[in-house]
Amino acid sequence: MDIGKDLVAASATPLVLAILSEGESYGYAIIKRVDELSGGRLQWTDGMLYPVLHRLERNGLVSAHWGRSEAGRRRKYYRLTNEGSEELRDQQRQWKVVNETLGATPFQLFQLVPQVI
Amino acid sequence: MADEGSVQVLDERISEWRSYLRRRQAIASTDVEELEDHLRSQVTDLQEAGLDAEEAFLIGVKRLGELDTLSREFAQEHSERLWKRLVVADSEGRGTQWGREALVALFMAVAAGVAIKAPELFGIRWDGEAGTLFYARNITFLVLPFLAGFFAWKRKMDSASWPWLGALFLAGAVAMNAIPFDSEGSTLVLAIVHVPMALWLAVGIAYAGGAWRSHDHRMNYVRFSGEWFIYYVLIALGGAVLMALTAFVFSAIGLDAEWLVATWILPVGAAGAVIIAGWLVEAKQSVIENMAPVLTLLFTPLFTVMLLAFLVTMVVTGSGIDVDRDVLIGFDLLLVLVVALLLYSISARDPQAEPGWFDVMSLTLVICALLVDALALSAILARISEFGFSPNRVAALGENLILVVNLGWSAVLYARFVGKRDGFAPLERWQTAYIPVYAVWACIVVVIFPMVFRFQ
Description:
Chain A is built from 5 helices and 3 strands. Chain A is of the alpha+beta class. Chain B is mainly alpha-helical. The longest helix of chain B is centred in the middle third of the chain and has 38 residues, at 215-252. The chains are: A alpha+beta, B mainly alpha.
């Protein structure tokens, strides 16, 4: 299933923040986690994650440092900051509202009606 | 499992890919490194799943995304790199857009030139006594609205911002003409100096297309201002040569062209050049690109050495600062210069880069400036009651305070960054967040000072 560009962009921030709330991580592992959590249904263009991470870093929501991978390569690790946790809580509230509003509309039922034509 | 041959193939492919990526201005070398780690992790996983090196590499690269889209995304996030204007490939339709922009800029420049001469229709000549005063009060409103208009048009500023921008200029014009300044008083001179400052920042609203709250847009406006100043000085130099030669060649055939130069070429050229310089900075960013940071790089060490030498000399000779009435203005200028050096070194810096020697140098400069200013202030404050609180001195003190607060906190943030306890972003944000303070202060000087000092 292809998820629209706007929706992918909108959900990227809360998803990344939420994944980082599980603990420090790096780009490739975050992508794998998204893949795993969505059962492969949510596909990102891998490279697009990095501008998102850099934006979060610049806004102080995550902090980054260079470390080493198991294979000895330089690898940039990201960690949630206190501000990031706050932002995550805030996003949570916002998504809840969106979710509940959508749930109250015929949106949910709509899918169930079989297409006649 | 990965045999030697496939490792070699992979390394070759990746190094090709890397050098291809490096050509993209928006993707810094640390980003390339980060993406390479990603790619290699992906390739390793794919190889473990049974693919050979070549296939794994191809799939990994594909998953990273198309290079153009990727570098556009990076450019959007890292607008300081975008400032170099080499990334976003808006090649189609660029010619016509460029031509239209040149036309609008030319139109605005001519309009500013007309506006500057228009008061003469009402008998206000700028070499007459009353005329000089009129022009000194109003020159800002005759020129800057056209620069603001150009950017508002170019950035397609949202319609909600138009009335605000208009109101700001109108409020400035009303303040300058309705406040009953004493024409000999220093509050008038202060207002004349501060109004362009306040409205230059108002032009920034148009420059940001209305989104002036954005820190990125503010930083871009700082970059623009520095480049604009350099272009304007260059145009002024060329204009001076043009005027001198005009007067010379006509005098060679016995005609006096000086009146033409003084009443037409100089005022119209000076006004029009404000808009033309603004347009040039926009259009030619990559030609003399980023002169301001280059000058900063050159002068930061020199000023640091100068201030250090000054401090050492003061300590060794034990001589105090000789306080006279105007010494405060001199130290204000010093602080303005240091803030400018700091601002332009920040604006050109890659926020993701690790602290280096230049950061240590900048930090030293800021600390030296603060020390020197503290010495000067303590000497001045001790004698301020003797001099009395004239408008000039209060303005100079207020400005000193504003700059010291800026530099003081900058020093703290910079020290944290150099000590690797914090990133670079807080320092950048502090500087952009501070910009409205200057605007508010300029407004206070224009509007509140005359009332407090009875228009003297």
